[in-house]
Design brief:
This protein has one domain (13-313): Sulfite Oxidase, Chain A, domain 2 (Alpha-Beta Complex), CATH 3.90.420. Helix content is 19%, strand content 20%. The protein contains eleven helices and twelve strands. A hairpin with a 4-residue loop joins strand 3 and strand 4 (145-155). The longest helix has 14 residues, at 19-32.
């Protein structure tokens, strides 16, 4: 008899929720949306965006991409949507109520810099150009907490193709919305607003890089980066820019928000590595949302995605790869 040994990042078949049950649960929740139970359902359902029926109806969650499997159960939706970093709304984890003020329509995304022709796309026009799929990814915050969630979206390389960058472009600089009328955190003038992050072209076009528009089969909530965010599962979470309004293709390495604020603690690469600690805490283990804080688990190199991305960093080991 052939016995197959699972790799460290793979999810055993017994741990996967049957597709029929998964979709039946969604239909049940959708039916609740029009009833009086919605008011009592708490933050998990109160933020359902009104534009869902116009833009993403029938497209979420999208077909599940089974290439990327993990060895953990999904994080409870309530935990993933009420424990968030989004400094534009405050420098604490309970920002989800304030984030509901975010206006997700109209929303424009500018593709600029070293491209054949700069363009500004309405988010709905952009979504009409791509195929939506679902991917279950690990997410690892630099603060040493982690989650496993089902994102819906499309590969970042599809957006790169739409932008049509010039051959000389080496990096993608990404910028988050900065609107003081909507985002009270912007009053914290000591931060270098707007929030900026960057990746190399090789990272942007790696198949793991994922532009996210949905979470748990629903349109992405504001606190998680609606209407468009990036998921880079092999990097610390601060690299995964939220509420993106601009992507600039450039031959100059971007200086990111946290790097500008404190370059002794945060570098450009930010790849997950349990052997390289943050200057103020260990990165060897992590706390998984929804679990006992004292029951920490080992952190994996590249967050468990080494086989997909390790080759991107050969030859640059002398740089601050993992900070």
């Amino acid at each position: 008899m052939l016995t197959r040994t699972l790799r460290g990042w793979e999810l055993p078949e017994r741990a996967v929720t049957p597709e029929r049950i998964y979709h039946d649960r969604r239909r049940l929740l959708a039916g609740m949306a029009a009833g009086p139970l919605l008011a009592a359902a708490g933050p998990l359902f109160s933020a359902a965006p009104a534009y869902a029926a116009d833009t993403l109806a029938g497209r979420l969650p999208g077909p599940r991409n089974e290439t990327y499997k993990v060895d953990r159960a999904l994080t409870p939706e309530k935990d993933a949507t009420t424990y968030n970093n989004f400094y534009e709304f405050g420098s604490h984890k309970e920002i989800w109520p304030a984030a509901q003020k975010l206006k997700r329509r109209p929303w424009m995304v500018k593709l600029a810099g070293m491209v054949e022709k700069e363009k500004t796309l309405d988010i709905d026009d952009l979504l009409a150009k791509v195929q939506i799929e679902e991917r279950v990814y690990r997410h690892r915050c630099v603060e040493a907490w982690a989650m496993t969630v089902p994102w819906s979206g499309f590969p970042m390389k599809a957006l790169v193709d739409i932008a049509r960058p010039l051959l000389g472009a080496k990096y993608v600089r990404m910028e988050t919305l900065a609107d003081k009328d909507q985002m009270p955190g912007l009053r914290q003038f000591w931060y270098p607003w707007p929030y900026v992050e960057g990746v190399t072209m090789a990272e942007a076009t790696n198949d793991l890089a994922f532009m996210v528009v949905g979470l748990y089969g629903k349109p992405l909530p504001p606190q998680n980066g609606a209407p468009l965010r990036l998921a880079l599962p092999w990097k610390y979470g601060f690299k995964s820019t939220k509420s993106i309004v601009r992507l600039t293709f450039t031959d100059q390495r971007p200086i990111s928000f946290w790097e500008k604020l404190q370059d002794a603690e945060y570098g450009f690469w930010a790849n997950v590595n349990p052997k390289v600690d943050h200057p103020r805490w260990s990165q060897a283990t992590e706390w998984v949302l929804g679990k006992d804080r004292n029951n920490r688990v080992p952190t994996l190199l590249f967050n468990g995605y080494a086989e997909f991305v390790a080759d991107l960093y050969k030859g640059i080991e002398g740089e601050k790869l993992y900070m």
